Automatic annotation (TrEMBL):
Lineage of producing organism: Bacteria, Bacillati, Actinomycetota, Actinomycetes, Mycobacteriales
PANTHER family documented for this protein: DUF218 DOMAIN-CONTAINING PROTEIN, INNER MEMBRANE PROTEIN, PROBABLE PERMEASE
Transmembrane intervals: 33-53
Assigned keywords, A-Z: Membrane, Transmembrane, Transmembrane helix
InterPro entries: Cell_Envelope_Assoc, DUF218, Rossmann-like_a/b/a_fold
Protein name per its UniProtKB record: YdcF family protein
Segments forming domain DUF218: 65-209
Domain of life of the organism encoding this protein: Bacteria
GO cellular component, one term: plasma membrane
Coiled coil: none
Pfam families: DUF218
């Protein structure tokens, strides 16, 4: 009887250990990447919200070629309370000598008799501004299109600098868009109206404008779905 060495069976546990180890490593790295992306997203979101809040506090009354009033809702030629607050601020800036020209901007919804720009001009002329001191740019259904229309109208007239009037939380987005359109722009927002009445309206405005600004910066398209009614 001859002796033969016993056959050894492959260690199946060792063979299966390696694939499981690689899979666990991949899962760990995937988890880290996802966690990092979430953290970066939160930092971007929070940083943008802080900038919206910071710029909302700026009031720059530097002399400009034009005071630009961003449109808001109007009813048969009567500005809404949001729009009226902006127009009143523009009137005050004009009286303080910030510019000899006020530009109102905004089109109209289906069925409206007046454009936002026209109703804004009527408000200002009724308040005592000369008719030739107010230019109505009667187009624009959102902030981006309104800014682009204003920029085109100003360039046609050789005007370059603009003091932008809107709600405080709307300031950063309007300024960003205006500068992208080639204007030398800064902000002098209203401090009255529904957009600033309560802490809730302020928080709502900051949240909406943060989303709208991020959307614009990512796509350079209009942010109608995000912009609140007061800011359009």
């Amino acid at each position: 009887m001859t002796w033969a060495p016993a056959r050894t069976r492959p260690d199946s546990r060792a063979d299966s250990r390696a694939p499981r180890g690689i899979g666990a490593a991949i899962l760990r790295w995937a988890g880290r990447l996802i966690s990092g992306a979430v953290v970066l997203g939160l930092v971007l979101l929070l940083g943008t919200a802080v900038r919206v809040w910071q710029v909302a506090r700026i009031e720059d009354y530097t002399r400009a070629d034009a005071i630009v009033v961003l449109g808001a809702a109007q009813y048969s030629g009567t500005p809404s309370s949001v729009f009226e607050a902006r127009l009143y601020q523009a009137e005050q800036l004009y009286e303080q000598g910030v510019s000899d020209l006020v530009i109102t901007v905004g089109g109209k919804q289906e069925g409206d008799l007046y454009t936002e720009a026209a109703s804004g001009k009527m408000y200002l002329t009724d308040a005592g501004l000369p008719a030739d001191a107010v230019l109505a740019v009667e187009t624009g259904s959102d902030t981006l299109r309104s800014i682009e229309a204003v920029a085109a109208a100003m360039k046609e007239r050789g005007l370059e600098s603009a003091a932008l009037v809107s709600d405080p939380w709307h300031s950063l987005r309007t300024r960003t868009m205006a500068r992208d359109a080639g204007l030398d722009a800064w902000t002098a927002p209203t401090r009255t109206g529904p957009a600033v009445y309560t802490r809730e309206s302020q928080a709502h405005g900051i949240a909406r404008e943060t989303a709208a600004l991020l959307w614009y910066q990512l796509t350079h398209f209009s942010a109608d779905d995000f912009s609140y009614t007061a800011g359009r």
